[in-house]
Amino acid sequence: MRRSVLTLILLACLTFLTGLGRQAITDSDEAFYAEAAREMVEGGDWLTPHFNYERRWQKPVLYYWLTAATYLVTGASEGAARFWSALSGVGLVLVTWAAARRSGGRIRETSASLAGAIVATCIGYFAEARLALPDLPLAFCLTLTVWMAFRALDNGATSHWIVAGAAAGLAFLMKGPVAFVIPGLVLLPLLWRERASVRMPWAGIAVASAVAIAVGLPWYVAMWRTHGTEYLRYFFIENNVDRFATDTFNEPRPFWFYGPILLGGMLPWSAYLVGFGLDWLVRRIRTGRSSDAAWTFMVREGESIDWRLALWAIMPLLFYTASIGKQPRYILPVLPPLAILTARAIADRIDRAQTTGRSRVLAAATWATAVLFAVFAVLLVRAQPLFISAVPALSWVAVAVIAAGALGIAGIAVTRQWIRLPVVVAISSALLLLGVQFGAMAGKRPEAVEQMASLVSANRHANEPVAEYEVFVRNLVFYLGFKQQVLFDEENAVAFVRSPERVLLVVREDDLPALSSASGVALNRLGQVSYLNTANLKVRTLLAPDPTRDVETVVLVSNR
Q: How far is CA 119 from CA 125, 334, 495, in A?
């Protein structure tokens, strides 16, 4: 057991922590948290978060606190901003491993280690761990809450209820009411189904609730006492109810939106999830019952309760599917139970293939995974012109490593040395993720936003106002360290450049002619940078890369 834990910690640190600060803070939501934490340290206000020197009430305070505390020790940096997100990824690996170890059967150690390895090497968690966002810490807290509640239901231990309550309270401080909604959606159907055999654990639920309130509520009370009911209305109604039920914050997305997101988040393990899932479904239709042990989760020897994992995965997915304001990262808490199911299926099929020689579905999924790696290598070669800050030598090393992974996985399929499959796919997956990160995403510094910050500093002589028009609107303030204006439409941009005083404006080159024409101001070009927003890459971009379309020129101009 100790060896398995150490191996998983090493793997998780490799994928989540290696080169964490190599990439600049992106022009995405992570800039809100990186900068708000910096302003918390600078201004000394540890109660009310601020971004761009204005109050930021959209999210609770815990991630800001954690990051600001890290800044006090290390200074404000990209790695420090992302540290708690990455550390939560390591924690998720260990919690998933611990949950999977409770499965029955003689292969549970293998399936538990594999479940942890899947979490450590799937794209969904890898991508989120390298962003300064509270979503991965939230997923850790929610996963710990549900798992500890499962344990408490089985053994009645008050200590497990206390841990579940503390984790829920931290999740409440991390992201808000969803901290109670998700565990409730999983546990209530579970309690209803087990009502005949399990007494309702009122005392344990009361203990967990009291601990959650004690941990999570005081900050909200302090905010209410400081800012009044305006804060409560803004946060709980506008930023939770409206975010869920309206398109105020996000454009409406179709009901099937999370299907591709789940498969993408589980890459490069998705072929096994889909293959075994379809095989299980076919067997169930044919026999009228679930006879495949690969999809059975055992909490106690001989007690089949695979529906616990099903509830754990399905109920949050249904909740977020019902939401109008869908976001890909919302369903991160769904991945641990899916990883356990997938690992259990792989381990069972490997065990069965060793004794019976039958491995049709296992072989098909392995071949599909090998093809997927080859496709990744080809896409990385095709998309190289887009990654303007990448080191070319590292890009080609990444291509070679990913191609080697494809060959290694294909070799397993050919030789049918299935016992080696978990290690080969896990190592290949880790190298694939790191290859993409270092061969494409994180390259030469300074990056475009840092170059623009230097241009602004060099051309700002008398504290002139600085504004951004639809580019670098979130991350530039982190590198400049003073308040800027953010212009969201042409009317505001025109008014800004018509100012009687000298002003500096950061704008895309493509938007410059229309802005100059509309304002009637001859704008002076002070410098420019080439920019690819890696935080906003889409599948279409990788399938049909076009540097003239996807790589933008951003210019700094002045009106005097």
A: 7, 11, 50
